[in-house]
Design goal:
With about 110 residues, the chain is mainly beta. The protein is built from 1 helix and 6 strands. The protein has a 6-stranded antiparallel β-sheet with strand order 1-2-3-4-5-6, with no helix packed on it. The longest helix is centred in the N-terminal third of the chain and has 15 residues, at about 1-15. The protein is extended, with a radius of gyration of 24 Å.
Amino acid sequence: MKMFIVALALVACVAALPVEKDVPKILRYEYDPKPNGGYSLSVESDDGIVRNEVAELKEILDENNKPQLVLVVRGQYSYPRPDGSIETITYVADELGFRPEGASIPQAPAAARR
C-alpha cells in the first residue's frame, strides 16, 4: 500500500509541473560591440520576430553646460500579427526618451507635437 501512495504522489508531482510552451528558436543573432560603447544588434527568430538596432555615443550638454555622454539607440522590430500581416515599429531612444513609431502606435494631434 505504501508503494501505491508513493507512486501516486510521484504522479501528482509530475502532473503539477508547468507545461513548457513552444519557445521560439533564434535563427540569427549578430552582436557587434564598438570600442566606444556603441553596438549593432540583429536578431531573428523562427516565429517571425526580427529586431535590428544600432547604438552610438553622443555628447550633449547638461543643464549646467557640462558635457555628458548619451547612448543613442535607433532601430526597428517587426512581428507577425494574428491576421498574418507584419507589424513594424521603428524607434529612437536617447536623451529625450523612447520614441516609437508604427501603424499601431497612436499619434498625438499635430498641434501637440510642436
